[in-house]
Amino acid sequence: MDILIEDIDETKIAARIPAWYRRNVPSRTFVLFPLMIKGRPVGMIYADKDNAGEIEISEQELALLRTLRNQAVMAIKQAG
C-alpha cells in the first residue's frame, strides 16, 4: 500500500521519521512506495515539495511512479 505522509512534524508521525531523512531532504511531505527485496522492507520515496501537504500527483504520474517501483524491484531481483 502506498502511503502519503502530509506533514513529517505531525504528532503521530514525527518520531517515526528517521534522522537521515530530516538531515538530507527538505521536503516536509512525501509519498512512500514500499516494497520487499529478499524479505527485507525497503521503499521508494517521492518528495518534491518543501511545505507540508503540497504534493499533488495525477493518476498518470502515480501510475508512472508505481511502474518505476515495479521495474526497480525486477532489476534488483535479476541482479541478485
Radius of gyration: 14 Å
Beta content comes to 15-25%
- Secondary structure: helix percent: 25-40%
Q: What integer is the average pLDDT? A: 88
Low-confidence stretches: none
The topology string of helices and strands comes to EHEEH
Count all strands and give the number. 3
Structural class: alpha+beta
What distance separates the N and C termini? Answer: 24 Å
Order of strands across the main sheet: 1-2-3
Shape: globular
Number of helices: 2
Give your account of this protein's structure.
- The mean pLDDT is 88.
- This protein is an alpha+beta fold.
- A hairpin with a 2-residue loop joins strand 2 and strand 3 (40-46).
- It has two helices and three strands, in the order E-H-E-E-H.
- A three-stranded antiparallel sheet has the order 1-2-3, with helices on one face.
- It has helices spanning 19-24, 59-79; strands at residues 3-5, 30-37, 40-46.
In short:
The protein is α+β, with helices and mostly antiparallel strands and 80 residues long. The protein has helices at residues 19-24, 59-79; strands spanning 3-5, 30-37, 40-46.
Which short descriptors sum up this protein?
about 80 residues; alpha+beta; 3 strands; about 20% strand
